[in-house]
Amino acid sequence: MTKFTKDHEYITADGTVGITPYAQEQLGDIVYVELPKVGQKLKAGDEAAVVESVKAASEIYAPATGTVTAVNDALSADPGLINSSPEGDGWIFKLALDDAGELDGLMDADAYAKLTA
Amino acid sequence: MAEAAPDDLKTVVLNDKHVALGGRMVPFSGYSLPVQYPTGIIAEHKWTREHAGLFDVSHMGPSFLVLDNKSGDGEADHAAIAAIVEPLICGDIRGLKPGQVRYTLLLNEQGGIHDDLMVARPAADGWGGALYIVVNAGTKETDFQRLAAAAAGKATLNRSDHCALLALQGPEAAAVLDAIVPEAVELGFMHYASFDWRDTKLVIARSGYTGEDGFEILVDPEHASSFWDTLLADGRVKPIGLGARDSLRLEAGLPLYGHDLDETVSPVEAGLNFAISKRRREAADFPGARRILAELDGVLERVRVGLLVDGAPAREGAPILDQHGAEIGRVTSGGFAPTLNRAIAIGFVSPAHATPGTRLQVLVRGRAQPAEVAATPFVPHRYVRKASK
Q1: Domain B10-58+163-251 falls under CATH 3.30.1360.120
Q2: In three state form, how does the secondary structure of chain B look?
Q3: Half-sphere exposure of B35 (CA within 13 A, CB side)
Q4: pLDDT at residue B105 tops 60
Q5: C-beta atoms surrounding B106 within 10 Å
Q6: CA of B30, closest CA in chain A: separation in Å?
Q7: Given B36, B194, B234, B299, which residue has the most CB atoms within 10 angstroms?
């Protein structure tokens, strides 16, 4: 089940991390993405990536502790995928979690929907 | 559904229009204004470069400075009103032809810039002894105080910032306006006049802040909505927010006051030598003339340059480094250029590093990225260079 952070990242059951449709809407057109490195170890809350809109840069934080196993290189050529398909082709990186139980502390879809209502 | 702005923010006449169009309202220079509409900044930017964009810039400071006692001799009255403002600025106002608009600078005694502004001489004979002056939003209170103080006892400053000031910009702007106020399309670049529209007068200048052909139009508050709707009824026109206004002016290499220009930056450092009129240079009779004339002779510590940036956008404040990593300046405006599909920036460096093609670096989040000094504008201007009738 996909979980959500208060900073508007999502993480799916297989560890795919991206930003929510709400977040991409708030940021506007994404023009540049700085990706983490495969193999990079991240603690929950670490800065993992940066997405830049026309107006500003925003940090993307690791929703949980783990190791980066893949990054979405397609974003380097087409950062707008985050706008057009934030939960699909616009994913940012995949994380192998140290402890899958850590996701229990994040919001589920209903709780996140309330946050952004 | 119209969201009320926080109490300390002013709203523009057309606030409800922006909200109804889905504009994302943000605080800017004390006003609540749309940073973008639902289509987004890049689409708005490209629309303006290809068609016609409509911008609400009513937060700015349009005003009319009018001589208290006119002689009735148009030339003498113009000379009298010009003599009131010239001591504050470096432009030749006396030499303006009827209908001509001039970009100029309000200067401090150290040769730094209080503001950049437009000063224009009315085209109509009956308006001798008046000037149309448009200043920036963020500085308008102090600008108006300076102008009013200089004019005390001789002329009166009438603020028009309760009106709507709209900019129609882009290659199709003239064709759009031709169907609404056909006479205005006869204006040459950097000329203005007033025109009848319905039962009001529109003050229209052929000028803008995008690098495209276009018009800046002052309309009274009672007619602002209907004029806005009339423009938007043309399918070639879309509303454009402040976000695209900034990316368009950045591509056009046009400085933004409070970022690229401030009280410490001189016109020569900013590359605005054209704004120091020949007559004023020869007379050396403007604030900060000693510094500015020395800089024109080559005594210059820093100059404004354009930068083509590789990778992430370098934003305002990013350090500019030489090839060895030594800091030689700072970015004053930077972002993404939709037309070029890359990051660009404006910043200040020492003259030794200012030649186009010079390879430099910018520091973004602690990492040095390649940057190259580029001639500005980054995207060629497409102003209409025709003689005014």
Answers
A1: yes
A2: CCCCCCCCCEECCCHHHHHHCCCEEEEECCEEEEEECCCCHHHHHHHHHHCEEEEECCCCEEEEEEECCCCCCHHHHHHHHHHHHHHHECCCCCCCCCCEEEEEEEECCCCCEEEEEEEECCCCHHHCCEEEEEECCCCHHHHHHHHHHHHCCCEEEEECCCCEEEEEECCCHHHHHHCCCHHHHHCCCCEEEEEEECCEEEEEECCCCCCCCEEEEEECHHHHHHHHHHHHCCCCEEECCHHHHHHHHHHCCCCCECCCECCCCCCCCCCCHHHCCHHHHHHCCCCCHHHHHHHHCCCCCCEEEEEEECCCCCCCCCEEECCCCCEEEEEEEEEEECCCCEEEEEEEECHHHCCCCCEEEEEECCEEEEEEEECCCCCCCCCCCCCCC
A3: 15
A4: yes
A5: 24
A6: 19
A7: B36
Instruction: Give the amino acid at B179.
Output: A
User: CA nearest B338: which of B214, B257, B243?
Assistant: B243
Residues 6+ apart with CB under 8 A from B172: B51, B52, B236, B237
- Using DSSP's 3-state secondary structure scheme, residue A84 falls into helix
**Four-residue CA torsion sign, B271, B277, B278, B280:** negative
Q: Check CB contact under 8 Å for B243 and A32.
A: no
Interface test with A, best of B336, B344, B369 (most A CBs within 10 A): B336
Q: Using one digit for the tens of pLDDT, what is the confidence trace for A55-79? A: 899 999 999 999 999 999 999 999 9
Domain B301-374 has CATH 3.40.50.2000: no
CATH of domain A3-98: 2.40.50.100
Q: Closest to A52 (Cβ–Cβ): which among B42, B243, B313? A: B313
Q: Which two tokens stand for residue B109?
A: 């005694």
Break chain A into its structural domains and give their ranges: 3-98
Q: In this complex, which of A28, A29, A32 lies closest to B313 when CB atoms are compared? A: A32
Q: Cβ A32–B42 below 8 Å, yes or no? A: no
CATH 3.30.70.1400 fits B61-159, yes or no: yes
Neighbours of A45 (CB within 10 A): 13
Summarised one tens digit per residue, pLDDT across range B330-375 is 999 999 999 999 999 999 999 999 999 999 999 999 999 999 999 9
**Mean pLDDT value across residues A73-100:** 97
- In chain B, which residues have their Cβ closer than 8 Å to the Cβ of A52? 312-313, 336
pLDDT at residue B3, rounded to an integer: 47
B367-374 and B303-309: which strand pairing?
Answer: antiparallel
Query: Roughly what angle, to the nearest 10 degrees, separates helices B41-50 and B242-251?
Result: 60
Distance in angstroms (rounded) separating the CA atoms of residues B380 and A98: 53
Q: What is the ipTM of this complex?
A: 0.89
How far is Cα of residue B90 from the mean position of the Cα atoms in its chain?
17
In this predicted structure, the answer to whether residue B385 has a pLDDT above a threshold of 90 is no
